């Protein structure tokens, strides 16, 4: 039986068609070009997986290139965060590049364009330039400075470069067509003055190239064969090609821009401006807050690289923008963690359980498997004693037949331990249960092989020994927004949809082994969900973030 082949996406079809039509295979080269003006988010993760995935599929190099042309918004800390994200996802770039590497080449080409009558310095205000652009139904009008002499343009550009002029005095524009149906072709700006120090070039430059002028030329200088970007850049393709027409050598590879659709995830925002606002307004603690769908936030929350890559692969590459349900991302997360996360016991809402017939002062170490999914992960020891903590919800004085947890007169098994039977409970003056009393069957120890240990009971509870319990801080994270698409309502600010219950901080009690978990380790708190050790953990206090619940709880909420 032949092995089933994964169908190609349309981008792979484009590449294969180009190879078929004569592009030499050794000329294939891809790139991922982020702007270092913020942290990368789940949408960028899909783009990373696409470009580096193509590199893996075709066994060809992929460059990581930073589009660092706006020093007013870009910082070195974002460069480092992006590099860490790409590496964490498991990808290796061929060359680490920066658009700023090419500032001199770009400038030299701009000078040649002026000499060839393809560019000019415009001295109008930004408002005047915008007004003269026209509209979709009205052609633009030419700048009064469009026919400046080559000598004057060169002198002005040199002055801009050397800091002779202020930020709004002059810009360099390409001379294309003010009547074009594509507004981007109506003499686009190539350079503007920015009086800010650059994170790499310092004070060397006073002018900085615009994205459209920089991007295609950078692709060309790196000999990128295929430049993939999201659909909003489709109108830019004509300009991308026009700029390339001014510089390409026919003996070299000419980059090809093609577009794919964004895959936005529900209950999130992915605009860097909006993510920045969440940080600046204190809604979240920072770019890596576990409620943020930045890659750094997802990593801190306990997501795995495999889960994100499997998610990206499952949604594929499309030609139309689409909103993917958060449940789909969480499905891949649960699937990966179920296979790879160790199991531990932790009680989030504790109530004391006293086993009245267990000898006072006695304690024993019980064997607990680290994973029901993988026996090779072995076992650990957990202490057991007369007084335990169990979840408050795991006990009712009386309940119907469908309640399989502890009640008076009913038996349940304590995970990895003994079968117990509810006997009574103690309440405070408000009627709240403060202590549960039970008896245990000494012959029912899990794994002992006795007849009593084989006895079947319907309920199994997790627990921790009160004497040995480790107090831990648990941060119960939930979705940051209450609606699937918080930033598409034109009548409301997206901040109005912030979920007030997106974070609850509690003190829980865990088994002592939790103390040995390293920062970043994700484990399953049995019966509760997956939790990750947060970097805020110290020698004196362990901090855990809830990564995801064991089951989807939002489906029921949104159905009501």
TrEMBL record:
GO molecular function list: ATP binding; glutamine-tRNA ligase activity
A cellular component term, taken from the record's GO annotations: cytosol
Gene3D superfamilies reported for this sequence: HUPs (3.40.50.620), Ribosomal Protein L25, Chain P (2.40.240.10)
Cited SUPFAM superfamilies: Nucleotidylyl transferase (SSF52374), Ribosomal protein L25-like (SSF50715)
Annotated InterPro entries: aa-tRNA-synth_I_CS, Gln-tRNA-synth, Gln/Glu-tRNA_Ligase, Glu/Gln-tRNA-synth_Ib_cat-dom, Glu/Gln-tRNA-synth_Ib_codon-bd, Rbsml_bL25/Gln-tRNA_synth_N, Ribosomal_bL25/Gln-tRNA_synth, Rossmann-like_a/b/a_fold
Keyword terms: Aminoacyl-tRNA synthetase, ATP-binding, Cytoplasm, Ligase, Nucleotide-binding, Protein biosynthesis
EC class (word): ligase
Keyword set includes Protein biosynthesis: yes
Domain Glutamyl/glutaminyl-tRNA synthetase class Ib anti-codon binding per the UniProt entry, residue ranges: 341-441
Statement: the UniProt record of this protein carries the keyword Nucleotide-binding: yes
Domain named tRNA synthetases class I (E and Q) anti-codon binding: residues: 460-534
Gene Ontology process terms (BP): glutaminyl-tRNA aminoacylation
Region forming the signal peptide: none
The protein's Enzyme Commission number: 6.1.1.18
Domain Glutamyl/glutaminyl-tRNA synthetase class Ib catalytic as annotated: residue spans: 27-338
Record-stated family: Belongs to the class-I aminoacyl-tRNA synthetase family.
Protein name: Glutamine--tRNA ligase
